């Protein structure tokens, strides 16, 4: 068959169309080539900018650039693959180096904190440390943090004469080097009457600022003794775990060594001993509980066996038995389930006890269902007896756990609730505040010139003051108020159903009473005053934010001359 002939006009039309398409394609290709070149240029620039981070990454980037220039026979695809590997390696390296930088920043901040700078600087240093911890993956923040640290360092060092910093190196302060207090240290900082009693020695004079620093170049002399602060911390640690119960001789030997004063050579072994005692206490508790659970399991297995045997008895009995078996199986399943979900020992024990109670009730029902005359009943009643014993044991364990919990929430020095207890109580009060909207006020209270008491009368006197003062304040508050030690010489007071103004009236009365009270330490009068910052919760406000405002008000009270209460701005 013949092809239809294309006329001259038709042929022209097709050619024009073809030429148009060809031109459009050529332009597209040109544009594509242009984009490709721009992309290659941009990639080369970016790769140059990324240089200097890590040697392997640099090498991979160089190869990529060569390939982009066409100097390399390998394809870009191969180089990109290698680059990806180098980037993964770099990411690991970057995380590690971020962690190291963060640790170094924190270490530097800790050193400055150990020089006991004034409150505002101390606070800024702590914030900086928190920032370095919270955002440690963000390398871009480090230059800013370093600049901040540099400024703070300048301010701290301007505050502390370099001489004092040099003579009282951190390690020396930690260990109470035996140097006499420098005149700067013992000079009164203010117009408060200086108590007439002589300082109780250099160790006591400097102990207050002790912080532990690992300094590989520190020179240690055997005559140096561990500062009172460190001793206090170790003692508190021993008191707060059950070490006394499991290794009383080791604990009293360690306490004796601490009382007599540790030489530098003894310091590390003593810390090792503390670590071992704490671990031993923990392991003993874990072992005891594991033993208890094994016993529970054994009991449950015994019960199950007896019930299974009973399942083949008379039909009435069999029905009762099957019913009980069902109940038991579901109790076992529930026990297993809840044990897995339990978040702490206390909860776990509670679960075990309540499940055992259910199993016992099921046994009781079974015994009352006509099974009394059956020989298996005797076995069951023996088992029930044993389960009762176990329940009593579980209840005793709960009491012990409750005691431990109370200990964990109590500050061992003052016997007052500690910061953990404050956090717990605050969360509760905040929930109530959100639900009912009744006024809720927080106050932060700080002893004035406490460092001077430590410096002039010694650390033990300081401890005594903290104890007496906290008792004096707590007893003047209502039952519903919360009073706790937040840390150091700082206390917190949570006052439900109280506005900032009402809190001011109460707390200012307490402040005045403290200022008027004659405190004595070994017959030496001690002037005690407190400054208090007060802030009331406003709708939707977080506990941290209220604390910050109360703390700021406390700063203001200090700055305005101390021995006063101040309400946070805008609440008067
Ligand atoms: N004895 C004793 N001293 C402590 C304890 N905790 C913190 N300190 C000391 O309390 C002192 C607080 O000193 P600073 O923060 O300078 O405050 P301050 O001397 O009270 O001065 P202002 O608060 O500005 O009036 C430091 O010397 C700490 O070592 C403790 O448990 N016992």
TrEMBL record:
GO terms for molecular function: diguanylate cyclase activity. This is diguanylate cyclase. Residues 174-201 are annotated as: Disordered. Residues 438-570 form the GGDEF domain. Its EC number is 2.7.7.65. Residues 380-407 form a coiled coil. PROSITE patterns: GGDEF (PS50887). It is an enzyme of class 2 (transferase). Keywords: Coiled coil, Nucleotidyltransferase, Transferase. It holds the Pfam family DGCcoil. Signal peptide: none annotated. The keyword Glycosyltransferase does not apply. It catalyses: 2 GTP = 3',3'-c-di-GMP + 2 diphosphate. It comes from Gilvimarinus japonicus.
